[in-house]
Amino acid sequence: MGVLQQMEKFLKGQEIRFTEGLRIMKSKLTNLQNSVSKFPQADQSSPPSPCPSLEAPPHGKKFGSKHVVGHEIHFTCFSGYRLVGSATRVCQENGSWSGVDALCKGVSQCASHPCLNGGTCVEGVNQYRCSCPHNWSGSRCQQQTQRAPPEWSVMNDPEFSRKPRCAKVDQAQHCSCDAGFHMSGTSHSSICQDVNECQVYKTDSGSLCAHTCVNIPGSYRCSCPGGYELLADGRSCEDVDECLKQQHNCSRGTSCVNTGGGFRCVHPDQCERNPCSMTSRTCHLAPKTVSYHYLSLPSNLPTPATLFRMATATAPGHPGPDSLRFSIVEGGDVRGMFVMQRLDRQTGELILVQPLLGPQELSVDVEMAEYSDRTFQSKHLARVHVIVSSYKF
Fold first, then answer.
1. For tag attachment on the chain, is the N or C end more exposed, with fewer CB atoms within 10 Å?
2. CA–CA separation, 153 vs 185, rounded Å?
3. Largest Cα span, the chain
4. For the whole model, what pTM was predicted?
5. Model confidence at 126, in pLDDT bands (50, 70, 90)?
6. How far is CA 156 from the centre of its chain?
């Protein structure tokens, strides 16, 4: 019994020392935890540093508003100015933009020496004016005033000449001409000559007629080029849609595409590749679908102008891609004429940023790549063929 009582005392002593040791250990852990929590913690989820904001150059425009890594900003200049520097700049991981600053420099209108016969070219805002020497006139000093009759008067043509209406008032004779004619000659041999309205109202913008002005005795009429019709206002022209009016000769198996002043017959406008084998990476990276689109534009269309939209579509019950990337495939002579930007989460827009003068044709390839969990799935290619008319209407 004595031995058991000694063992019981020994165990109680060990239990007290063990409990005291745990208390001391917990106190040290608490102090250590409090000291560690005071240290600043690195924010691993903070977004990458953005690039500084870029402004549109004077006499130009900027496309794009995001300033984070991987995004692009595009620049273009107004009519009468040319771009110097980088048309496209990309936000890099180091917080700086690729390329160099974009500037818009004016294009001299007098560089081609448009004034003739000693005329002096005077620069204006996106235009020029010729200061002509004595005896010369016209927009380019091309007419000799001392010999040529007034450019707005039709001379030596009996169809455009009439006798004036004359009457005596208070023993004096007064003569007048019909509307569209003016008095010519002396008081004893006066004659009414036709006023060429097409010359009188001739301006660079063609305010009298949209296309061609035809002078007729006492008046004028407007005409349109082939494939266009004159509108009710008597001066404007509108393209005739031969496809809509069934005025084409496209055979079965082709489609009619309306163009400015005509039409074109094209073959089916979409194709899809065959399924790829599991071992062919080249096939997997090739476009899954290729579609062909035809756009007819007037000459010198005001920019920026949205020409084409590309979007993804998923079948019911099938999850679609969670990320899309739109781009213009490099190639051809379209650099700087178009930009591709996102409209919303599933749609991209092809935008014309430089005016196109007709007649001309060009193609631009637009690519849409699909990603799921940041993994490439497939891509689709749209070939947009642009047909620019010779006319501005």
1. N
2. 12
3. 170
4. 0.55
5. low
6. 50
**CA pair distance 233, 236, nearest whole angstrom:** 7
3-class DSSP assignment, residue 387: strand
Q: Is residue 188 part of a domain?
A: yes
26-58 residue pLDDT tens: 777 777 777 655 554 444 445 556 899 999 999
Q: CA-CA distance, 239 to 228, in Å (whole number)?
A: 4
Looking at the DSSP bridge assignments, the partners of residue 8 are none
| One domain for residues 221 and 308 | no
Integer Rg of the chain from CA: 39
Instruction: Using the predicted structure, report yes or no on whether residue 74 has a pLDDT greater than 70.
Output: yes
Beta bridge partners of 263: 258
pLDDT in tens, 333-365: 677 899 999 998 889 999 999 999 999 999 999
CA 12 distance to own-chain centroid: 91
- Peptide bond preceding 164 in cis form (omega within 30 of 0): no
Rounded distance between C-alpha atoms, residue 35 and residue 22, angstroms: 20
Per the model's pLDDT, the better-predicted residue between 337 and 318 turns out to be 337
What local confidence, expressed as pLDDT, does residue 10 receive? 72
Is residue 173 over pLDDT 90? no
Same domain, 354 and 380: yes
**What values do phi and psi take at 37, rounded to 5?**
-65, -20
333 and 384 inside one domain: yes
* pLDDT at residue 204, as a whole number: 54
Q: Are residues 384 and 297 in the same domain?
A: yes
Residue 140 has pLDDT above 60, yes or no: yes
**Backbone φ, ψ for residue 45 (5° rounding):** -100, 5
Q: Six-digit token pair at 47?
A: 């977004």
Are 301 and 262 in the same domain?
Answer: no
CB 64 within 8 A of CB 86: no
327 shares a domain with 267:
no
**CA-to-CA distance for 283 and 258, rounded, in angstroms?**
35
Residue 113 lies in a domain: no
How big is the CA angle at 209 (ends 148 and 131), to the nearest 5 degrees? 40
**What's the CATH number where 88 sits?**
2.10.70.10
Task: Provide the mean pLDDT of the chain.
Answer: 84
pLDDT of 289 above 50 = yes
Residue 259 lies in domain: 248-282
Q: What is the count of structural domains for the chain?
A: 4
- CA 360/CA 10 separation, integer angstroms: 106
